[in-house]
Amino acid sequence: MASLEDRVSRAHPFNSTLETGIRALIVLEALYPRRCDLIEMTWLDHLVVHTGDIDGEDAPESLHPDLPNRVGELLVRRQLVERSLRIMHQVHLVEVFETESGIEFCASEEAPSYLDLLQAPYSLALKQRAKWMANRFAGLETAEIRALIESRIGRWTAEFRADETPTGLSA
């Protein structure tokens, strides 16, 4: 198996495992101490860059373009988000918890120090949107977030196979 460094160095920067992992880390840090499962992380990865898809006049403008086929992203992003969370766990930026309801992810204690280093305009805009999203979802249960996604993006994109278990992740 290729080392983490080999995989990251061969990665393309746009929508790569590394970029998705950093985005996931920013979302988890904004939501801290909330833990999220893989399905929630896939939804949140989409919503943090497509904030315009969320109800509310105060929603920030989406960071990524509103392309007509973007709702299909949710169907193909799950594996990428899973791989990205695995890498962030390997470098001790994400904690993984095995619970009765499944595997959940949370930002580690090292995450804030790393994220403070990210000062590019895109990173700052992403952090701002993640904080807005965390405030918007504060107190919402997973079922309520699912209902929001179904109403705004479409029921078919919110439904993933529940029997698909993340691979290679352990606490």
- CATH topology group: Arc Repressor Mutant, subunit A
The fraction of residues in strands falls at 5-15%
Q: Provide the CATH architecture.
A: Orthogonal Bundle
Give the biggest sheet.
2 strands, antiparallel
Query: What is the N-to-C succession of helices and strands?
Result: HHHHEEHHHH
As residue ranges, the low-confidence spans are 155-168
Strand order of the largest sheet: 1-2
Rounded to the nearest angstrom, the distance between the terminal CA atoms is 21 Å
Could you describe the 3D structure shown?
The protein is globular, with a radius of gyration of 15 Å. It has helices at residues 4-10, 17-31, 38-49, 73-90, 111-116, 121-137, 142-152, 155-158; strands at 94-99, 102-107. The two termini are 21 Å apart. A hairpin with a 2-residue loop joins β1 (94-99) and β2 (102-107). α2 crosses α6. The chain is mainly α and 171 residues long.
Layout: helices, strands, pairs:
Elements: H1 4-10, H2 17-31, H3 38-49, H4 73-90, E1 94-99, E2 102-107, H5 111-116, H6 121-137, H7 142-152, H8 155-158
From the structure above, extract its key features:
171 residues; mainly alpha; two-stranded antiparallel ribbon; 8 helices; 53% helix; ABC-3C_MC2; Threonine transporter
In short:
InterPro entries: ABC-3C_MC2. The protein is mainly alpha-helical and 171 residues long.
